[in-house]
DNA sequence: TGCGATGCTCGTCCTGCATG
DNA sequence: CATGCAGGACGAGCATCGCA
């Protein structure tokens, strides 16, 4: 209470003092992400008056959390932000929040986009499905979604990611301090020279680890992440060479993507593929004034060649055309008016031997989304789609791949063309499979079933108990299955609860928590250890109390309460809450229990509901939960689908079924998937010997 | 003591990115 | 390289507070 009181007693002057002190001890140069710096900050050094280090830290977290301070900054910058905020607080109550708002938001991942798009429909269709179940269903849908249908989401993600990167670059650019730090880098010079290569004149590349590229005159910032570099130019400035309009060039590893926004352009390349986008009125490929962004790397080339493409010439409108070697798209651009969008930008992309063209609205072959169009191609395949106005592609039913012999050379690739042929749902999978079968057998083709084991990122793990029937649904599982504890690191067994199988309270991991070896002992700590004991802290609850069921109405509503009348003792979820603040606590974690103003130290235990998962995946639990080192909880999930509503045809689902590059996922994701697959195989092979 | 209101967190999913 | 987090929604569980 006293601590909480102290928190409340923070005067503006005290807060400013704290911020000043923080500024003083922030390491210089402060170029790390704020979380990292914050994590390593010696908060005890900040103690002043009657404020301890942990209190200072808590106050800081309150400031940042409640006021939504932008997180894409260094800690030093955040402190400055907070300082302004506090100062404004006294001037005008209306002013104080504004400067801290509008944080940069990361683009939604393709899956999230799919989820958001589909959820409303599923909610209405299956009102009985819980949120969790709905998520499972949708994830399954997404997993099984044909690659070409996913492309739409991936493309949107790519576009927004580029915008995000631009905004982020702009934001960082505005940070003079950061710029100073960046200027000190020697890599800058290297990068700037790279950016002026005669061939890729308009594109800044950083083959290695270069970090900064600047144009001498115009202010520009180029940043490299790992093996990539981002060249960014702000308004009226350009890194590459667009005197008037800004251009942003990004090269991630071996990839290139060309994008143009209003007056800016971005070039980026992906391994063997490239995507060019011009959402608005940008001219990428060939505006006399503006430099062309497109670039070609290794096997792919973004063609801004006026020669090869009439499309590429739209003075006002952006257009990008790529003509790799064997790309059929490039050829179509040559001799056809395909991919032309007078007002709208259009992009055609064709990596190696493949080409895909999609038209949604105004473009016939290439795909045009309102003001932009993107065409993607898969390796050895070519697909053309035009759901709406396209005269080219027409899929009979659900097939997202169509041919248009006449109008589109894109849709036809004599050799490698894989036009849709599956009358039902999995036409794309088939076609892709046919194409990629030679190389990868990962693409499976089961036209009607959703069991296609294709590059499903997620590993479906079954516990030894739930292993039996393939189609057995979690939902359909009898309550008894709940006795099998879930094989999730989040599930932690408390010694006292071990009597009740499957009812072990879960300790929800926290990042720092999982690493701190001492955590376990801190879990369940009595609040008395804190400076100020909480009134009826939940942490202090003794296991015996769990035997008394709550009479909360909500508890009574739980369908499975009958099975587990008692409550197992809870365990403190948040590491920081129950432990000493000194070393570990990270941002967002409160150093000590007593100092947490609002959030009570909860225990990561679920009610009986979660223990008897009639409807949840928790039913498939492995008894060895607590002993299993943490894996991703997502791995420990059953893929049974009995309760899953029948898979819908994708016809309605995608207004623009688009082919997807099979390598659309990041390397990180791919590696992760590989690991999961390994885990899965290991699990299956060694499931019998697994502990019980 | 019990209940409603409130607020917070979890759980589901996937993916990209940051971090250690 | 491995791992954790953020991002979306939202029902459910849970603790706390206030009131009857």
Automatic annotation (TrEMBL):
Record-annotated HMG box domain positions: 104-172
Superkingdom: Eukaryota
Keyword line: DNA-binding, Nucleus
Molecular function GO labels: RNA polymerase I core promoter sequence-specific DNA binding; RNA polymerase I general transcription initiation factor activity
Bilayer-spanning residue ranges: none
GO BP annotations, alphabetical order: positive regulation of transcription by RNA polymerase I; transcription by RNA polymerase I
Biased composition (Polar residues): 190-429, 463-483, 490-499, 511-531, 538-547, 554-563, 575-595, 607-627
Cross-referenced Gene3D superfamilies: High mobility group box domain
Entry keyword annotation includes DNA-binding: yes
Cellular localisation: Nucleus
Compositionally biased spans, kind Low complexity: 430-442
InterPro entries named in the record: HMG_box_dom, HMG_box_dom_sf, UBF1
DNA-binding region: 104-172
Region (Disordered): 190-692
GO cellular component: nucleus
PANTHER family given in the database record: UPSTREAM BINDING TRANSCRIPTION FACTOR (PTHR46318:SF3)
Protein name in UniProt: Nucleolar transcription factor 1-A
Gene this chain is encoded by: LOC101734916
């Amino acid at each position: 209470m006293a601590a909480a009181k102290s928190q409340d007693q923070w005067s503006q002057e005290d807060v400013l003092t704290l911020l000043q002190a923080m500024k003083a001890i922030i390491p210089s140069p402060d170029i790390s992400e704020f979380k990292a710096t914050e994590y390593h900050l010696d908060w005890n050094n900040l103690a002043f008056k009657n404020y301890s280090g942990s209190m200072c830290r808590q106050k800081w977290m309150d400031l940042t959390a409640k006021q939504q301070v932008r997180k894409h900054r260094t800690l030093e910058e955040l402190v400055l932000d907070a300082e302004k905020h506090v100062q404004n607080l006294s001037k005008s109550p209306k002013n104080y929040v504004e400067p801290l708002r509008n944080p940069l938001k990361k683009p939604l991942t393709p899956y999230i986009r799919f989820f958001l798009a589909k959820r409303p429909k599923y909610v209405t269709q299956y009102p009985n499905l819980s949120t969790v179940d709905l998520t499972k269903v949708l994830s399954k849908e997404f997993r099984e979604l044909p690659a070409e249908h996913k492309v739409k989401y991936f493309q949107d993600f790519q576009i927004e990611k580029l915008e995000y990167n631009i905004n982020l670059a702009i934001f960082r650019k505005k940070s003079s301090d950061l710029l100073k730090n960046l200027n000190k880098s020697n890599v800058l010079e290297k990068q700037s020279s790279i950016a002026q290569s005669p061939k890729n004149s308009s594109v800044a590349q950083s083959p290695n680890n270069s970090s900064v590229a600047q144009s001498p005159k115009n202010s520009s910032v180029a940043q490299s992440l790992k093996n990539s570099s981002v060249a960014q130019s702000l308004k009226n400035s350009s890194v590459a060479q667009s005197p008037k309009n800004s251009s942003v060039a990004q090269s991630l590893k071996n990839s290139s993507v060309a994008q143009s926004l209003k007056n800016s352009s971005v070039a980026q390349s992906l391994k063997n593929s490239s995507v060019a986008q011009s959402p608005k009125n940008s001219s990428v490929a060939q505006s006399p004034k503006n430099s062309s962004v497109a670039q070609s790397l290794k096997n792919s080339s973004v063609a801004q060649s006026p020669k090869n493409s009439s499309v590429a010439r739209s003075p006002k409108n952006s257009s990008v055309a790529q003509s790799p070697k064997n790309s059929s798209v490039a050829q179509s651009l040559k001799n056809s008016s395909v991919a032309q969008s007078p007002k709208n930008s259009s992009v055609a992309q064709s990596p190696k031997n493949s080409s895909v063209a999609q038209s949604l609205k105004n473009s016939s072959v290439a795909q045009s989304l309102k003001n932009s169009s993107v065409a993607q191609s898969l390796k050895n395949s070519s697909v053309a789609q035009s759901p709406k106005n396209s005269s080219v592609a027409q899929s009979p039913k659900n097939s997202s791949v169509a041919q248009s012999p006449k109008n589109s050379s894109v849709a036809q690739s004599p050799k490698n063309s894989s036009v849709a042929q599956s009358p039902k749902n999995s036409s794309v999978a088939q076609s892709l499979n046919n194409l990629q079968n030679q190389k990868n057998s990962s693409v499976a083709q089961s036209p009607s079933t959703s069991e296609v084991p294709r590059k499903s990122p997620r590993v479906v793990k079954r516990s030894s108990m739930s292993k039996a029937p393939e189609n057995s649904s979690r939902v359909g599982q009898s309550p008894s299955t709940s006795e099998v504890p879930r094989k999730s690191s989040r599930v932690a067994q408390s010694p006292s609860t071990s009597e009740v199988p499957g009812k072990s309270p879960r300790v929800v991991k926290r990042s720092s928590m999982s690493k701190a070896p001492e955590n376990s002992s801190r879990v369940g700590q009595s609040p008395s250890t804190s400076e100020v004991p909480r009134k009826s802290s939940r942490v202090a609850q003794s296991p015996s109390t769990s035997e008394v069921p709550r009479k909360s109405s909500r508890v009574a509503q739980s369908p499975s309460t009958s099975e587990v009348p008692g409550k197992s003792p809870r365990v403190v979820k948040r590491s920081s809450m129950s432990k000493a603040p000194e070393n570990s606590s990270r941002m967002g974690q409160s150093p000590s229990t007593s100092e947490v103003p609002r959030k009570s130290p909860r225990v990561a235990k679920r009610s009986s509901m979660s223990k008897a998962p009639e409807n949840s995946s928790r039913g498939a639990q492995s008894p060895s939960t607590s002993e299993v080192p943490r894996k991703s909880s997502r791995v420990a999930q059953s893929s049974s689908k009995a309760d899953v509503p029948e898979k819908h045809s994708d016809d309605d689902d995608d207004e623009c079924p688009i082919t997807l590059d099979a390598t659309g996922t990041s390397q990180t994701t791919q590696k992760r998937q590989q690991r999961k697959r390994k885990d899965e195989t290991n699990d299956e092979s060694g499931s019998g010997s697994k502990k019980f």
